[in-house]
């Protein structure tokens, strides 16, 4: 009759428990996989919904968006709804943006090309560190007259239009609808003016 070996018995028990744990783990994983898939689909749907929500906003909705207050570096408050009946051009930039130096002069030309009764330009630096003096010099060097707004650290001004790159120009029609978003400097002048001309 074989002798009982306690150590061997414990090893066998451990191996059996390990096999059982693996089987239970696989079974649990199979049960949880559909749940993970459902959660992932929900998150994707929410993200898509938010994207379309922002894309579908018009100016009036953007102005009512919590936290938005267009305050120029001169201290005046800007309400885009006050410019209904004109085409509005929002230009997002910052002073140390290297490629903005290509589009900045075109923006000044666009200001000269249209009368103040046709077009209102508002420039918005996305860098809260841009100084008043630097921004005034920038405008003066371009011989421009547009208002300048400095974004805050929460990006209250740029986030409603999902500004991720500079320069970005947003063209808004006379009824307050965002009709075009021009990102980068490629054909900047022709793209912006073509959009404006189509609205006038």
Automatic annotation (TrEMBL):
Keywords: Membrane, Transmembrane, Transmembrane helix. SUPFAM superfamilies: Thioredoxin-like (SSF52833). Residues 59-200 form the Thioredoxin domain. It holds the Pfam family AhpC-TSA. InterPro entries: AhpC/TSA, Thioredoxin-like_sf, Thioredoxin_domain, Thioredoxin_ResA/DsbE_sf. The chain crosses the membrane at residues 32-52. This is Thioredoxin domain-containing protein. GO terms for molecular function: antioxidant activity; oxidoreductase activity. It comes from marine sediment metagenome. PROSITE patterns: THIOREDOXIN_2 (PS51352). Gene3D superfamilies: Glutaredoxin.
